[in-house]
Each structure stands twice: as C-alpha cells, then as structure tokens.
Amino acid sequence: MIINFVSDPEAYLWQGYVFAVLLFLTALVQSLCLQQYFQLCFEVGMNLRTSLVAAIYKKALTVSNVTRKESTVGETVNLMSVDAQRFMDFTVYMHQLWSSPLQIIISLVFLWTELGPSVLAGIGVLVLLIPLNAVLVTKSRRIQVIAKCILKFFAWELSFQKQVEKIRAWELKGLLHFFHLQSFGIFIFSCAPILVSVATFAVYVMVDEDNILDAQKAFTSIFLSRNILMFPFLPLPACAVKFHEASFAWNQDSDVTIKDITLEIAHGSLVAIVGSVGSGKSSLISAMLGEMENIKGHINIQGSMAYVPQQAWIQNATLKDNIIFGSSLDETRYQQVLEACALHPDLKLLPGGDLTEIGEKGINLSGGQKQRVSLARAVYSNADIYLLDDPLSAVDAHVGRHIFDKVLGPEGLLQNKTRILVTHNLSFLAQVDDIVVLEAGTVTERGSYSTLLANSGSFAQLLNTYGNQQDNIHEEEAMGKVITIAKDTASGNTHFNMLVFLLGLFLLIATGLASFGTIRASRVMHEQLLSNILRVPMSFFDSTPTGRIVNRFAKVKTLQFYVATSRQLRRLDSVTRSPIYSHFGETVSGLSVIRAFGHQERFLQHNEKIVDVNQKSVYSWLVSNRWLAVRLELVGNLTVFFAALLAVFVKNSLNSGIVGLSISSAMNITQTLNWLVRMTSELETNIVAIERLNEYTEIKNEAPWVTTQRPPSQWPNNGEITFIDYKVRYRPELELVLDGINCDIKGTEKIGVVGRTGAGKSSLTNCLFRILEAAGGKILIDGLDIATLGLHDLREKLTIIPQDPILFSGTLRMNLDPFDQYSDEDIWHTLELAHLKSYVQALPEGLSSPVSEGGENLSVGQRQLVCLARALLRKSKILILDEATAAVDMETDHLIQETIRSEFANCTVITIAHRLHTIMDSHRVLVLQEGKIVEFDNPEELLQQQGIFAGMAREAGITRSQDTAL
C-alpha cells in the first residue's frame, strides 16, 4: 500500500500516515502474538521436561535389578539432562506440523495473485534445495559421562584417561564433519530466497511481454518468499536413511566389512538389498542399527526403527505379548497384523490361541512361525523405518507371497513406511522401488529392476546364476517430464553481483572456521577438565557431589539453549541442576535400602522438590528471554515505522523501488537486531559454562605422578614398612585421624589391623598409597621415604583388594589388565588361582565378556574374586586387604584366604579386618584406637594380655588363635 501511495502523485498525504501507522500496528501485534506463542510453548516445554525428569526418577525407584543392569547411571542421567531438554525444545516447533502446510498454501495464493503461474518456477527451485537442508537436521546422540573415577589405588588414571579421550576424539570428529555439512547447509539456505526470487521473476518477465515487474510486485513477492514461504521448509529432512562415504567394522581393530557406502533411501520407499552369500547384506543392516563401528564417513537415520533379524528372537511369553512387545493394545491393528502375517491358521492349532505360552526362544514353534511372529512384532510397532533381514527365507512360497502382498508390497500394511529388505528371493524384486546390489561390502549397482537388467551388470549375472524368475513380474509404468533449464544470461551491475558472491563465500568460510574453532575449544577444555579431575586429591571427591561433576562434563556438550539473557540466571540454572543428578546417583546406589525401608515416596517427594527449585530458575530465564525479545521486536517495528514515515515525508523525491527496498530492509532489521543482541548475550552468559569448567581445571592437584627421583626397578625387594611418628588429617581444618604412629613391619610379615569403627584402619591404608598426605612424620618402604616418590611410582608397586570390589564398564579383560601388559596365558592362570577359571570359560565371550557399570552383572563374590585376580596379576611385594571379605559369604572368604596364604607367602600382607578369624593366623596384630596404636603383638600374646584385642575376640567367640586356623 505504501509503494502504491508513493507511486500515485494524486494520493492524499493523510493516507500515507494511515498506511505507516497500520504497518506499525500490524508488525507490533504480530510481535506480541509471536512472543506470547513462544512463552506458552516454552512453559509447556518446561513442564514437559520437569514431568519427564520426575517420571525417569520414579521409574528408577521401581525398576528391577535385572533391568537396572541394562543401562548405566550415566545413560539415565543423559536421559534426564539431554533428552528431556530436547522435548522442551521440540514444543516450540511442534505446531509447525499443522501451521506449515497452511502457511505454504496461503503464501502460494498471494504469490500466485501477484505473479501468476511464474511462481511455480520459484517453487521448483525451492523443492530442489530441500534435500540440501537435510544436513541441518541432527541425529540423536547420546553422551557417555564419567560418573566416578576411583583409579588412584592402581595408578590407572592414564589408561582410563586415554580411553575417555579416544571416545571424545571420535565424537568430536563426527561433530566436526557435521558442522562442515551444517555450514554448507546454512550457506545454501541463505542463498535460497535469492535463487527462488530470481527464478520466479525471470520466468515472469520471459513468458509474456506484457508482464511488467514493478516495485510493488517485486518486494511483495520477495517478502512472501523470504519471510513466509521459506520458514516452513527449514526443518524438512530429505531422506529416511543416508550413508555418505561410510565404512563400518565390527570393532575398531578388525577389518572393514562395509566399505565407502554412499546411499540415500527416501521416505516411504521399498528398497531391496541383494548379493551373494557374505557380500555384507546383514552387516549393512547392523550398521543401520548402530551395532557396528563407524570407521569413516557418517550415517543419518530419520525416524524410529523396527528390526526383523534373520534368526527370529522370541521372548518366553505369550504369542500376543511377543507381538505387542510392551505397546498398548490396538485390537483392530492387532487383528490386521495377524492376518497380514498369516498367523490366523497357526492360532487355531495352538492350544491357547494367541495366549499360548510359546516357551523360551520359541521352542514350541517352527522356524517359519517364529519368523512370522518376529515380523508381526515389527509391523505392530508402527515404526517409521523397517529393517528386514531376509524375513521370507523361513516360509514357503505361498506364505511368502501372502506376506509380501499384505505387509511389504504396494498394497500392504507398510505401504507408506520405509522398508529395507534383505532377500534372496528374486521373484519379488520387480515390485520394489529400488534395488541395491552388494559385493564384498560395497555397492556395485543401484536402480530399478528394469534398469539393472538393462545394464547387464552383477545384478543381471545374479539373476542368471540363480534362475531368472519373472513369472510374476508386473509391468512397470512410469510417467515423468524432462525439465530442461536454459542457460540464462544475467544482466546488471557486475560489481554488485561479485559483491554478493563474495559475501556469500565469506559467510561459508566464516561458518566453517567457527565450527572448527568451536570443536577445538571443546576438545581442549574437555581434555583439561578430565586431566585435572583425575589428578585432584581424594578430599575433593569427599566434598564434591558426583552429580555436580557429571553436570560439568555434560554441560560441555549440551549447552544448546535457544537464547539466554542473564548470566546469573544461567548460573542459577546450572547450580540447581546438579543436585538433581547427585540425588539420582545416590538413589540408584542405595535403591535396595530405600525399598527395604519403604521410603520410595519420601525420596520421590525430595526429587520433586529439587526439580521444582530448578524449574523456578528455568522459568525466570524464560521470562527474561521474552522480556528481551519483546523490546527487540519493538525497536525493529519502530525502525519499520520510521522508514514508512520517511517515505511519506519525501514522497515526491523517491521512486517506488527505493521505498520498497528501504521498508523491506527495515523489516529485516528486526530479525538481524534480534539475532545480534541475543548472540552477544548468549556469548556473555555461556561464559558461565567456561567459568564453571575453569573452576575444576584450577583445583589444586595431588602430588606429581612421576618425579625425577625414581625408585630402583626392583623396589621394594623386601617389603619392609616403617612408620615414624606419622600423623595425618583429611583436610587442614579437621582433627588428626592418625596421631603419632610408630611401628616396623618386616618383609614377608603378615600383619592384621583391627579396631573399632573410626579407629583409623582405612586411613592407614590411604596413607600407604598417599591418598592422604602426611601432616607429620614419614613412611619408609625398604628405607625409601614414599613422600619423595611420584604417586604412580609408589602406587604401581602396591596392590590393594578393597572392601567394595570396584569394576568398570568394559570387558573382563580390561578390568584385569587395562594396559594390556599380560598375555592371555597369564590371565587364565591368574583366574585359575582366583577360582574363576571355570566360570569365565563358561561365558560365551570368555575374557571379552562385558562387565556392566560397577560389575552389576556379577555377584558380589565374583566381583571380589576378580579383584583378587587383579592383585595376583600385579605380583606386588606389598598387598593390602581392606576388609576385603567383609561383604562376602564364608565360602568366598575361605577361597580368598586360601589363595592369599599360598600365592602371597613371600609378600608383606596387611589385612584390615572386622572378621577376626581372618587375621588370627597373622604374625602380628596391630590394634588402633582413636588414631593411635594401643596394642601390637602376635595374636596369642594379645589374647593372654586381656586387653582391647582380647575383648574383641571374646565378642567374636574366639578364645585362642588355633580356634580359627583354616
């Protein structure tokens, strides 16, 4: 209207003012409505996130021990921190599901009104650009966080640091690749409005000489294409599955099985994967499932997946439960699935129909029945992508045809789903959309059935080799148009075009450099944080909740909030999140106790309380964002208003083109100003994350791991230990826990250490490893002051079997030998001595058998025997048993004691015990009370002295040392 007003010399001046005011009011109302929409969506998202966190916690309180072992605490914390946040982010865009089509239709109507059929050219360019926008859609990644590193006793920090850094390096490599693609995607999307406008205008003026492109049509169309039509297309993904130069292996050290695959599978298509035996068909499916290591390139999968394995997996449950598989029952769909998978005749033969218990691994079903049940389970799940590993191989031709027609084919239940079918049955291939031919793990051919036959390549040879079955081939009919784009000659200002090109090029380069810099900064910060955390003294872990550490590591990777306007609010959010993770970790570790006392409700209420505290800070952060957004929008709207007023004031000296350009640019100022201020604020407030990480990188470290004064390679030779007036406290402000310890322990001597709770027994152990540093005095081992040694030089020469057996997530071999210093023969011999050989041999993967977090998939006794095996491997001259058998049964206790007596006969053994019978055959017993030595003699003498030790022995029912000999 303003452009028309300027173009009309007879228009009244007051009309211009009205148009300017209307433009301002329209923009203002739009801004207020948009910000109100964002506010309501964020509130819904915040409540959704809070509900999910509470639900995850509630589930953790009720989950079975078996289920709890299937995932680590870190993975569940990841659900609470990252995935719940994604739900919150999703709520802002969920209404695009219905508004985007409406917005596109309205925009097209307006554009058609202005430009007529020429708008189809611009839409064509836009559609061609949609696949490139798919790189902006990120696939879900899960982070692995370190919950706790108790590695100091064994000097294993370096090994675990390398493992974490290796995982981090792979993650950053993938992120860098993704950011490069993202940079290109942003560049293409930035150019899209220009390309769409150029194509539309070019066709408009070329198809008819009477079409005049005036300022009104041009700027109205540009506004519609840029600000309305482009927005709904942004999040659209291009394909369901995309491989880009991807190579996969079963593990990092094995040969590559899938090599340099570049493949795109469209949504809703039926793709067959064929090839000879061993060509990599099932491996390709495994790669899509994430079961293989991604050695090179990347794979992107959009949507949920269902999988039908080549060998059907059946639960020990009813047939109905196997099909429903935990989903809610939809009787109509359930009956459709039974009919499509040809299971109705089988149900009539089963005694209980679909309620028949089909036994472990489907023992009372035939192979074909099991395969159809497995297929029915996948079909019922209503997933987006179906991975079908030769599901028709176990059924006859008639049933196979029925399943293909009713399930997989163009009229089947899955007709609108993405279906990836591995098959040896060539009779169905003429009815699929696309065929991928594999040979030796690479794609040799791809295309439709007729195209591949015409090529006379490996697919045609495959048909000739296995018989060309074309009895049921349906004739393919395809209709299409060849679009020829004529070469256009652009005319205009060459310098301006070059400027636009250079600006676009610089934008691409700047985005790429920013991506590289971000990844490098993240890597450096993570390495510094991890390195320092592994070097801090144990007193830091005593006073710092694990959840707080987890939060710091997690926040390195998950600071992806939309905007932030207050550093203090961001800090408050971070501070109030940490107690949630700490409380969750504490709950999981004490789950049995909580259940035993029936205090689940109390813990649940406490969790809701701390979640509500965090929710308050998040809400304040959201409100501050809206406060800033409204004011930024107002500044932008005022800019548009004054631009319109200026056009009215100088109406006679400006042409309509200049007016359209100025108002169009002013409208873009709102978005640009919004982005500039928000990103500046984001940069400032995200420094909170750096600040919080920096706190941990500046924590005072423990003593150096290695110093210039190295002990002799054979040290210690004898294992003699001398305490000289030794004193220690946990922190400077606390009282002494050991006060004036003086004693000599001879080489190969077996010493028992006893005392009441809090007497200082475990502190004595911590001092030997320098977990606690001396407040006075010193400890000599074979005459060498341990305070002068590097921590690793000291700790590598000592071995401890702790009271709580500590195992790490990984393999059994990794838990025994993380540095790969010992041969398999040594490890098997050690396992035999630890009475574990027969158990490990019975495991399917032997030494490579997985150990879950904390060794949850092993019994306490087995974990303790693994720790014993670990000690046997190290062959240290000094062994410390810190109440190693306090939590095991008598049989395991007997096995451990027996092995220690035989295998550590020539070592110095210090046993800290509550069970006195375990130390009654010691050479001497050291009795501690309030951090001081009150008795130190052989057990028989102490029993006769009628002192503290004798009193403890009477309480244990021991009257003489011979009573406990084993």
The strands making up the biggest β-sheet line up spatially as 5-6-7-3-8-9
Please give the share of residues in helix: 40-55%
Structural class: alpha/beta
> Which spans of ≥5 residues are poorly predicted at pLDDT below 50?
132-150, 227-238, 466-494, 554-566
In round numbers, the mean pLDDT is 73
Q: What's the gyration radius in Å?
A: 36 Å
Based on CA inertia axes, which overall geometry fits? globular
C-alpha end-to-end distance = 102 Å
| Count of helical stretches | 32
Largest sheet geometry? 6 strands, mixed
Number of strands: 21
What percent of residues are in strands? 5-15%
Model description:
This protein has a 6-stranded mixed beta sheet with strand order 5-6-7-3-8-9, sandwiched between helices. A 6-stranded mixed beta sheet has the order 15-18-19-12-20-21. Strands 11-10-13-14 form a 4-stranded antiparallel beta sheet, with helices on one face. The chain is built from 32 helices and 21 strands. Helix 7 (157-207) runs antiparallel to helix 8 and helix 7 runs antiparallel to helix 17. The chain has 966 residues and is α/β, with parallel strands linked by helices. Helices cover 54% and strands 13% of the residues. Mean pLDDT is 73; it is low at 132-150, 227-238, 466-494 and 554-566. It is globular.
